[in-house]
């Protein structure tokens, strides 16, 4: 996690973005646009088009699960349980077969 102390162009971009999006997404997008970093978010509705337009790489929760599974940090069952737990708590996360999931960045 990086500290967010915008100035100049980053501050202007943050102001424009935060007029129509949440503060967190706005901060992440403006920061990553000017620092060439990666966004980790599952709020695709608010970030996808902006990231594509500005060539910002973003990873979703499912992407992180995919990499954890591929690197042996989580089993298939643990990934499935994680998705179920997130859904039970009311968050929108599709139930996927992590063994067949392919992150958009790899397509």
Plain-language structure description:
The protein is mainly alpha-helical. The protein is built from 5 helices and 2 strands, in the order H-H-E-H-E-H-H. The chain has helices spanning 8-18, 23-35, 44-53, 61-70, 76-88, and strands spanning 39-40, 58-59. It has a two-stranded parallel ribbon with strand order 1-2. Helix 1 (8-18) packs antiparallel against helix 2. It starts with 7 loop residues before the first helix and ends in a 19-residue tail after the last helix. The relative contact order is 0.11.
In short:
It contains 5 helices and 2 strands. It is mainly α and 107 residues long.
Low-confidence stretches: none
Span of the ends, CA to CA: 27 Å
Strand order of the largest sheet: 1-2
Radius of gyration in whole Å, from Cα? Answer: 16 Å
Structural class: mainly alpha
- Quaternary organization: single chain
For the report, how would you describe the main beta sheet?
2 strands, parallel
Tally of separate helices: 5
Question: SSE string, helix = H, strand = E?
Answer: HHEHEHH
Helix content: 40-55%
Keywords:
single chain, 107 residues, mainly alpha, two-stranded parallel sheet, 5 helices, 2 strands, 4% strand, elongated
SSE blueprint:
Elements: H1 8-18, H2 23-35, E1 39-40, H3 44-53, E2 58-59, H4 61-70, H5 76-88
Parallel strand pairs: 1-2
